[in-house]
Amino acid sequence: MVLSCVCGALVAAYFVPQIAAAGAAMSGSLNFYNGLPSDLTVRPPAQTTRILTSDGKLIASFYEENRVRVPLKQMSPYIKDAVVAIEDSRFYEHSGVDPVGVLRALVSNVSGGDRQGASTLTQQYVTNVANEAKITSGREDEVVLSGEKTFGDKVREMKLAIELEKKFTKDQILEGYLNIVFFSRSAYGIEAAAQRFYSVPASKLSLPQAAMLAGLVNSPSLYDPVTNPENSLKRRNLVLDAMLAQGKITKKQHDTAAATGVGLKIRNSRQGCAAATIAPYFCDYVSHLILNNRAYGADTEAREQKLFRGGLTITTTLDSRLQAAAQAQVNSTAGANPGKWGASLLTLQPGTGRILSMAQNTVFLPQPGKFDTQLNFNVDAKDANGNDLNGAGGFQPGSTMKPFTFAEWLHQGRKITEEVDASRREYPLGFRWRDSCAKVVGGYSSKQRAAGLEAADDLQNASAGYYRRMPANYGLYNSINTATFAEVAQLDICGIQKMVDTLGLHSGLDGSGINMHQLGNILGGTAVSPLNLATAFATFAADGRYCAPIAIQRITDFTGRVLASQQPACRTAVEPNIARGVNSVLQDVLKKGSGVYINPKVQGKVPVAAKTGTNNSNGATWVLGYTSGIATASFFGDALNGQKRPGRNITINGNHYDRIDGYMIAGPQWANYMLKVAKMYPAKPFPKPPASMIGKGAK
């Protein structure tokens, strides 16, 4: 301690001669030294966050400093010996400050030799820890680099180094140093540096590789092996010389290593969802679940710090097998089309809400010949970047809304095969609806519209020949608009509203509820996201059990501590018998209804139910199909901001369509995908509804 103080006085005399001029004595230097702070809080440096699939595959990384912490035992012994040899050969002998090194530096600097700083590894570690703390707290302007240190900075560094050595072992300090030190703008810490320059983990570094990286820390720019290979080789060989002189390696090892070239195998670091290896839009969705959740920080800035500097491991629900199949399918459907028509697939697991795949036929960043957008077709606007310019905000669901009216039909005690009058097309303004809790808005009457009233034209069906009496189930699996309205006319619309609400359906643009008293919403007038719609249909698949969608199943920090993540949130939303009634009818969609032309191979392979949907302009087309194991939303249509283009007279993959319908493109997309993946989540036959619910006169 006395020797350290003497060295401090010597440093003071050299660096700040004005102290002597002012009459400062040794006691003044000691008083100055004793008055310095002695406590240094060693916080973990910024580390890389990784987002993984449920089966452990990397989706993307997030970082401000590309760093992955590894324990000393997982580092090559060569890197430990190399760094000590070149940076602080007396590391295991001194107590934080090396008096011999200080005196040697003073003699060299005073005599006009090479200027030396005499910082030990412990002192360098102190500086890195202090600077990292300033960066983390947003005080980058206070960061002090080695060449900018004042006398006070230097002596403060010395005292903190001495105190640090009282708290930690040498190996702990060396481990901390090797995990925090800067190697390049793309690599902080030895693990990132090993991966960056040699594409190997730190544990596999060879002698020449370790010597190269050890030499790099002195001046990452000057000795960068990519931009300055000659300088880096000279520096590496100096490290090898030091290792030989200190007995760390043999002469043979030295000569063999010195004879090698730079030998780089560069792995460019890429971060963020734009660089995701798979599922960039799912990645974007997950990142915003973190950034929008106060559980990960009191404000946006704190949450960004957690995501980009916290070294989290975020294990998601995504199944890489389903994701690969979904991406291949949407690319096949409409991977590159001049009209930029959108295609998407999203799969949930009924009974858990786990999102298993999320794909669309676009790329996140511009690429030649590709449809690029950062709009996420599958989720609500708020689950993208928080405004409607960065999330598509859903699409009009069309006839995929009809099963919810049918579910309420059964809930109010009506029969599956009960006849309804689908010949009626006019429901004028002032029609006496049953509505116990609100007022119906809208009407269908060509006469009233011609008279200048705010009514729509008489109801239309997609095909002629269906304006007649028919069983309710027949009207649903053939997707007859007038049949659905014949049901609505006999129901309390407040019940339909409750059914839609309990299934969690809402506007994809602003999250507000869907007003079923607005008649246009009976046939899908309000845009909903594929995720929201798939969640509702998954409820039928799960025998009436609703589970909120979840994308994150586990989050741990760099220490392995488990943080808050999404937990299954399930409840009974629909009575099981009602769900079974809906399932029994939707199974006929593919057998003999509106989806019969989709792909007959699906039916018979697994028990499956589905519903087609098309909005009035044909610009949004759907198939929502499910087994008891998975539920998938398939969408094709205009996904660009505004969604104003009609789906008519378009050409996709060389096929011309006068108009598109749910079964034409979204249907085969869904069927081809389900044929590949449904078997991965085994399904059982749907339980049958009670006989009393079926009624007579079934078709």
From TrEMBL:
Domain called Penicillin-binding protein transpeptidase: residue spans: 347-626
GO MF terms held by the record: penicillin binding; peptidoglycan glycosyltransferase activity; serine-type D-Ala-D-Ala carboxypeptidase activity
Pfam families referenced in this protein's UniProt entry, alphabetically: Transgly, Transpeptidase
Domain of life of the native organism: Bacteria
UniProt cross-references to InterPro entries, sorted A to Z: Beta-lactam/transpept-like, Glyco_trans_51, Glycosyltr_51/Transpeptidase, Lysozyme-like_dom_sf, PBP_transglycosylase, PCN-bd_Tpept
Any one annotated GO CC term: outer membrane-bounded periplasmic space
UniProt record, GO biological process: cell wall organization; peptidoglycan biosynthetic process; proteolysis; regulation of cell shape
Cleaved signal peptide residues: 1-20
Key words of the record: Carboxypeptidase, Cell shape, Cell wall biogenesis/degradation, Glycosyltransferase, Hydrolase, Multifunctional enzyme, Peptidoglycan synthesis, Protease, Signal, Transferase
Catalytic activity entry: Preferential cleavage: (Ac)2-L-Lys-D-Ala-|-D-Ala. Also transpeptidation of peptidyl-alanyl moieties that are N-acyl substituents of D-alanine; [GlcNAc-(1->4)-Mur2Ac(oyl-L-Ala-gamma-D-Glu-L-Lys-D-Ala-D-Ala)](n)-di-trans,octa-cis-undecaprenyl diphosphate + beta-D-GlcNAc-(1->4)-Mur2Ac(oyl-L-Ala-gamma-D-Glu-L-Lys-D-Ala-D-Ala)-di-trans,octa-cis-undecaprenyl diphosphate = [GlcNAc-(1->4)-Mur2Ac(oyl-L-Ala-gamma-D-Glu-L-Lys-D-Ala-D-Ala)](n+1)-di-trans,octa-cis-undecaprenyl diphosphate + di-trans,octa-cis-undecaprenyl diphosphate + H(+)
Domain Glycosyl transferase family stretches: 56-243
Keyword Hydrolase: yes
Record-stated family: In the C-terminal section; belongs to the transpeptidase family.
Xref: PANTHER family: BINDING PROTEIN TRANSPEPTIDASE, PUTATIVE-RELATED (PTHR32282), PEPTIDOGLYCAN GLYCOSYLTRANSFERASE (PTHR32282:SF33)
Name of the protein this chain belongs to: Penicillin-binding protein
Organism: Arthrobacter globiformis (strain ATCC 8010 / DSM 20124 / JCM 1332 / NBRC 12137 / NCIMB 8907 / NRRL B-2979 / 168)
